[in-house]
């Protein structure tokens, strides 16, 4: 197939393809291993993920947000600002009596589903409704959920869906990102009949996603912050909000950092995995969240999903934003050390590595000696062999700092059990 993201090759018979893929799907879900018609690799990979996550091909997407919770959540979601763009570009499809337009968040939760009453009634039969969760782990292979999983626009055609109840539909979806951070915000989807399996529907949703990102980029303004969080280089985060100051314990510091890392909101289960990994206990997580809410007050933290109500700027996000704008020296100045350095919570460890890796990558690419010197003179950078080597490469042969830098490189390579580099070996031989 020329384009792996398209469901049908040019000239293919959609009816025959439905039969072929349907037979392959039945063989897959019943465990048969006999050869069959070729299935797109993006679909086959998704089937495998779906089979691990779901009890079977008759699973139904669950409702996670409803009524007031849904209204408040989507009103605050960044994609609410581009809903007029979605309606302008895709509204004609949603009004033609054959299609649905749907918008979901980064977790696959449907925020808006629009179309005629008849088509909406048909979608209700498979729980394709606002508030339902349509990521692969809860609904199997489908265009919005799979586009989020692989972060790429694609079509899912009829029997390519993992869940049998969805196989009479065809859909095309594209992910949407925050232009300031690159963070995944959600996806835009068009769902309808088999005729959607053409290049035009995929191009249309992709163009709509790009238009939404362009609008968000053009409307970027510095957000007023009501508070700040210091969590770099300390094991107990400090939250400052409207003149008040909280020094939080270790577990509450980890919870706050995880909430800040996902401003769109998190479920209790997601926070549990971020705190404890696979050993998460829902009861323990709820108890910790309840205690944190009592400490900070409901005006700061809301539930279902859990998120911060106020605009709070954490120091680790400040560092990342400065790096995104190429301000390496300023980012290094804002960096107070590793994020909650003694925390072993999986979500915090991942975020810590992300921040540190981005900062080190920027340092290793800079031609400015100043930030490198600052890093190497810090407790967390003093033994950073890669940065020492990058620093030495910037030193002129006659620079008095050059011998000291090479001596430190030699010491570190010996400590790490590495051979002297090609440039170090002759120098060390002369010294001996």
From TrEMBL:
Biological process according to GO: phosphorelay signal transduction system; regulation of DNA-templated transcription
Signal peptide (UniProt feature, chain positions): none
Entries under InterPro entries matching the protein: GAF, GAF-like_dom_sf, OmpR/PhoB-type_DNA-bd
Single GO molecular function: DNA binding
Residue ranges of domain OmpR/PhoB-type in the record: 243-308
Keywords: DNA-binding
Protein name per the record: Transcriptional regulator
């Amino acid at each position: 197939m020329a384009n792996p993201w398209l469901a049908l090759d040019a000239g293919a018979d959609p009816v025959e393809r439905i039969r072929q893929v349907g037979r392959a799907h039945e063989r897959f879900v019943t465990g048969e291993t006999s050869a069959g018609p070729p299935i797109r690799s993006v679909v086959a990979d998704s089937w495998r993920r779906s089979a691990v996550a779901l009890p079977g091909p008759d699973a139904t997407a669950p409702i996670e947000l409803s009524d007031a919770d849904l209204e408040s959540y989507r009103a605050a979601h960044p994609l609410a600002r581009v809903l007029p763009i979605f309606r302008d570009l895709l509204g004609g499809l949603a009004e033609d009596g054959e299609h649905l337009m749907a918008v979901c968040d980064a977790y696959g939760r449907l925020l808006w589903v629009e179309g005629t009453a008849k088509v909406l009634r048909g979608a209700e039969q498979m729980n394709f409704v606002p508030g339902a969760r349509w990521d692969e782990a809860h609904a199997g292979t489908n265009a919005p959920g799979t586009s989020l999983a692989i972060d790429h626009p694609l079509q899912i055609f009829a029997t390519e869906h993992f869940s049998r109840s969805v196989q009479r539909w065809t859909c095309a979806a594209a992910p949407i990102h925050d232009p300031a951070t690159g963070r995944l915000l959600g996806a835009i989807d068009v769902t309808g009949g088999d005729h959607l399996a053409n290049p035009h529907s995929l191009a249309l949703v992709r163009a709509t996603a790009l238009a939404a990102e362009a609008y968000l980029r053009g409307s970027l303004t510095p957000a007023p912050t009501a508070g700040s969080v210091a969590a770099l280089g300390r094991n107990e985060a400090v939250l400052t909000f409207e003149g008040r100051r909280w020094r939080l314990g270790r577990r509450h510091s980890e919870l706050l950092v995880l909430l800040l890392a996902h401003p769109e909101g998190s479920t209790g289960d997601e926070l549990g995995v971020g705190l404890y990994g696979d050993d998460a206990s829902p009861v323990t997580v709820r108890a910790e969240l309840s205690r944190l809410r009592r400490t900070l007050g409901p005006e700061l933290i809301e539930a279902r999903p859990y998120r911060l109500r106020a605009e709070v700027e954490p120091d680790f996000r400040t560092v990342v934003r400065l790096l995104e704008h190429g301000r390496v020296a300023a980012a290094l100045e804002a960096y107070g050390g590793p994020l909650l350095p003694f925390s072993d919570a999986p979500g915090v460890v991942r975020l810590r590595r992300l921040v540190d890796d981005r900062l080190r990558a920027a340092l290793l690419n800079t031609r400015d000696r100043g930030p490198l010197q600052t890093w190497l003179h810090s407790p967390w950078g003093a033994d950073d062999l890669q940065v020492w080597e990058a620093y030495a490469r910037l030193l002129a042969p006659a620079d008095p700092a050059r011998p000291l830098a090479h001596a430190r490189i030699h010491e570190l390579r010996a400590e790490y059990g590495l051979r002297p580099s090609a440039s170090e070996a002759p120098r060390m031989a002369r010294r001996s």
